[in-house]
Amino acid sequence: MTGAGAALFTARSLLSAAYARNIEADADSFAITVMHRLGRPTAPLGALLLRIAGPREQAFSILRDHPLTPERALRLQQEDAPPTGPALLDDTEWQALRMACK
Predict the structure, then answer these.
(1) What long-range pairs does 95-102 form, CB within 8 A, spacing at least 24?
(2) Which of 17, 47, 83, 86 is 20 to 30 A from 41, comparing alpha carbons?
(3) How far apart are CA 31 and CA 45, in angstroms?
(4) Which residue has the higher pLDDT, 16 or 33?
(5) C-alpha 67, offset from chain centre
(6) Helix (H, G, I), strand (E, B) or coil at 31
């Protein structure tokens, strides 16, 4: 790959990653809106994202096609509201789910 080819590839990758990050941010906004309408808190989703991503994300942030997980979790924490909707699971269902996830 020549220098010009590498520069073009890098520029295209940066533009593509930035576009994808915007789409993911929009998806997070949609999730926050839906969760609020359903009376669900948003902070647990941020905690789940952090748990899935692990303590460190590998890759340069400028090349990532998703917003960084800590930034997403912080936004979900900031948008959090106490639950107002009905319980999603009763105690028996919750225990069954916990056992299935072990």
Answers:
(1) none
(2) 17
(3) 9
(4) 33
(5) 8
(6) helix
The larger pLDDT score, comparing residue 71 to residue 32, is at 32
Tokens 């309408």 sit on residue: 37
List, in sequence order, the alpha helices (H) in the chain.
3-37, 43-53, 69-78, 91-100
CA gyration radius, the chain: 18
pTM assigned to the model: 0.64
Report domain extents, the chain. 3-100
Shortest CA distance to 52 belongs to which of 41, 66, 38, 63? 66
10 Å CB burial of residue 42 (0-12, 13-18, 19+) is: buried
pLDDT, tens only, 44-89: 999 998 888 876 655 555 445 566 788 889 999 999 999 998 888 8
Which is more confident, 96 or 5?
96
